[in-house]
Specification:
7 strands, five-stranded parallel β-sheet, two-stranded parallel ribbon, 42% helix, 12% strand, TIM Barrel
């Protein structure tokens, strides 16, 4: 929940002026009120636009919510689901997220699915089990074919907006675990084909080292995305 309409437009224009690596997929997830203008601003560029959230119902008496068809009608074909802040502040459960996943896929909306452990879960050593459970409960009912519309985003919640960052080794360890869990449920080919992003205080100073890890395919960028110079530097760190 950052930037008013004018600030959003200025940031997107600044980003458009940057030389971004042509072999890196770039998407911006703006607040809902800026989505239509962001789509307009990025037409003809390689920058995709994603929503930050989407409701599980196709329509109805859900004041303030946004449906898949609403997103698609303005040219938005990707949405984040399950962001740690949605889970924490709005009490989104795995069961609810499974519903949202189903609705998104039924409507042809690509999903960037967010998940990750809290600090106490990391300290207690249950972080692998927590992540496995989040994936299993929200995504493992899907067919292998449906995974072509899923991008995973691992967020160690303790490293979001705190200035703390999982070490590149910790990120790699969890990303490898995620692939193993998927391979056991489906197969190794699917596990290797899924893009897994790391989200947790990625900055220009640490991006290259994190992205160099073999199972880290990209980043879900938070605060650094509000600065065009920083965001471009992260994109070009691949």
């Amino acid at each position: 929940m950052n930037l008013d309409a004018n600030e959003s437009q200025v940031l997107i224009e600044a980003l458009k002026a940057k030389q971004l690596s042509s072999d890196v997929r770039v998407a911006i997830a703006t607040p809902a009120v800026h989505l239509a203008s962001a789509v307009s601003q990025t037409q003809g560029t390689a920058i995709d636009v994603a929503a930050q959230n989407m409701h599980q119902a196709t329509s109805g008496a859900y004041t303030g919510e946004i449906s898949a068809s609403m997103l698609k009608s303005i040219g938005v074909n990707t949405t984040l689901l399950g962001h740690s802040e949605r889970r924490a502040y709005f009490h989104e459960t795995d069961a609810l997220l499974a519903e949202k996943v189903n609705t998104a896929l039924e409507n042809g909306v690509e999903i960037i699915f967010c998940f990750g452990e809290e600090l106490e879960e990391r300290k207690s050593g249950s972080h692998f089990d927590v992540v496995s459970s989040q994936l299993r409960n929200a995504l493992f009912h899907l067919t292998a074919a449906q995974w072509s519309q899923i991008v995973l985003a691992y967020e160690p919640v303790w490293a979001i907006g705190t200035g703390e960052t999982a070490s590149p080794e910790q990120a790699q360890e969890m990303h490898a675990h995620i692939r193993n869990v998927i391979a056991k449920q489906y197969d190794d080919a699917l596990a290797q084909s899924v893009s897994i992003l790391y989200g947790g205080s990625v900055k220009p100073t640490n991006a290259q080292e994190i992205f160099a890890k073999p199972d880290v395919d990209g980043g879900l960028i938070g605060g650094a995305s509000l600065n065009a110079d920083d965001f471009a530097a992260i994109v070009n760190a691949f």
